[in-house]
Amino acid sequence: MGIVAMQAVLFVAVLALPLAAGLLLIWLGPLWAAERHSGDGRYWTVPKLEKTNASR
């Protein structure tokens, strides 16, 4: 692999880092916000099972 090719690969990799970070933030942002506002530290709230007469 020549010097120019290695420089091109490095240039593309450096340009891709902010793009990848932005996409990761867009992807994980809603999950992080949901976790912050859920109150119990979980991403999703699982409905609690109600005890009924059939389960006795």
Could you describe the 3D structure shown?
Keywords: Plasmid. This protein is an all-alpha fold and 56 residues long. 64% of the residues lie in helices and 0% in strands. It is built from one helix and no strands. The radius of gyration is 23 Å and the shape is rod-shaped. The model has no long low-confidence stretch (mean pLDDT 76).
User: What is the makeup of the main sheet?
Assistant: none
Mean pLDDT: 76
Low-confidence stretches: none
Shape: rod-shaped
Bin the strand percentage.
under 5%
What is the helical fraction, as a range of percent? 55-70%
Number of strands: 0
What integer value in Å does the Rg equal?
23 Å
**Number of DSSP helices?**
1
Which structural class matches the secondary elements?
mainly alpha
Distance between the termini: 72 Å
The SSE order reads H
What oligomeric state do these chains adopt?
A: single chain
Blueprint (SSEs and pairs):
Elements: H1 3-38
